[in-house]
């Protein structure tokens, strides 16, 4: 197949995603104002608590089974590598650029977490639907592709809603805590100054009135109080440190839905819920209907958020360029090296479509869930919208080119 034909196959899914995003952008403009900030906030909550968990669970229940999950063991390894490499490069970027501390989590998250959700879900079926696709007939390509994408998307969601979620939360909390800590230190200094002044004046009066002033000792209660305050301060710092590692935050609705979907998919419960003759098929069908709203909603939210990124360009241009270089040059190149090595050692089987999905993990733009997380914590929302705008603008070209190269590389 010629490179021009592969380019057209890779272009169609990206165009579909952009068209849905443009609808969200149009609905958010001031003259239309259907997709206002409040509307996006409420839809974000629906996506986070209902639509996306339902989509994850239904996709896994329908496509994952005990027979095929073992052969896909390299998927979580590959995703873990994307997060480790991206996080390391993001950490280097924030150090070089001297980014404000409250934005460290946002920048590291954008470099680490790729959009392994709605983009591959749109890209793979669209590629399989093309007559000239290099992955075989449309039916088997779509079925196998959705199995690979569902697992990739689910594991990616675990990393996003555990690692990135907590990275953004911790850096944001630390920044707020530093401001509060400085305020508390100022108050404490003022308080200690007045106390010390009071003690000094009282001591002077005692020295003047007491004949044996050399034997004067400060009241022991003052020293006991200071000792108790020190112990209390240490306990508060330890409690704050432990509080930053809150394991309960890992069990978010998308993460729980992933575990439930995997559990049902690989267990005998799958036969009870999946299939035309399954007695509980109505449950799986209902969850599937709820999940169908996730991708469209998230893509429209992305488009609406990109509008805010178009209006506000107050983010350092070099920071945006650094994230773009990491996401669309450094990670894809390293991804080719990783997957080529895995193929050489026989770690990823022989299906080129599976290899394509693995390569796609390294070349997608930042996860849209990061925008949802920043809105949930109200940390770096404007900066996130600007970063997303430019990354997704570049992705329309970069992702098409990389997908074309991957298909040529695997064919």
Keywords for this entry:
15 helices; 411 residues; mainly alpha; Na+/H+ antiporter like fold
What does the secondary structure layout of this molecule look like, with pairings?
Elements: H1 3-28, H2 37-63, H3 66-69, H4 74-97, H5 104-112, H6 118-129, H7 138-209, H8 220-244, H9 253-265, H10 269-273, H11 281-311, H12 317-344, H13 352-360, H14 369-377, H15 381-410
Helix pairs in contact: 1-6, 1-11, 1-15, 2-7, 2-9, 2-11, 4-5, 4-7, 4-12, 5-7, 6-7, 7-13, 7-14, 11-15, 12-13, 12-15, 13-15, 14-15
| Overall outline | globular
Distance between the termini: 8 Å
Biggest beta sheet summary: none
Helix content: over 70%
Count the DSSP helices: 15
Which fold does the CATH topology refer to? Na+/H+ antiporter like fold
Structural class: mainly alpha
* Radius of gyration over all CA atoms, rounded: 27 Å
Helix-strand pattern, N to C?
Answer: HHHHHHHHHHHHHHH
CATH class label: Mainly Alpha
Instruction: Kindly report the average pLDDT value.
Output: 78
Ranges with pLDDT <50 over ≥5 residues?
Answer: 179-218
Query: Can you count the beta strands?
Result: 0
Strand content: under 5%
**CATH architecture name:** Up-down Bundle
Whole-number total of structural domains: 1
Question: Overview of this structure, please?
Answer:
The chain is mainly α and 411 residues long. The protein has a single domain, classed as Up-down Bundle (Na+/H+ antiporter like fold), CATH 1.20.1530. It is 79% helix and 0% strand. The chain has 15 helices and no strands. About 10% of the residues have low confidence. Its main location: endoplasmic reticulum. Keywords: Auxin signaling pathway, Endoplasmic reticulum, Membrane, Transmembrane, Transmembrane helix, Transport. It is a multi-pass membrane protein. Belongs to the auxin efflux carrier (TC 2.A.69.2) family. One of its GO terms (cellular component) is endoplasmic reticulum membrane.
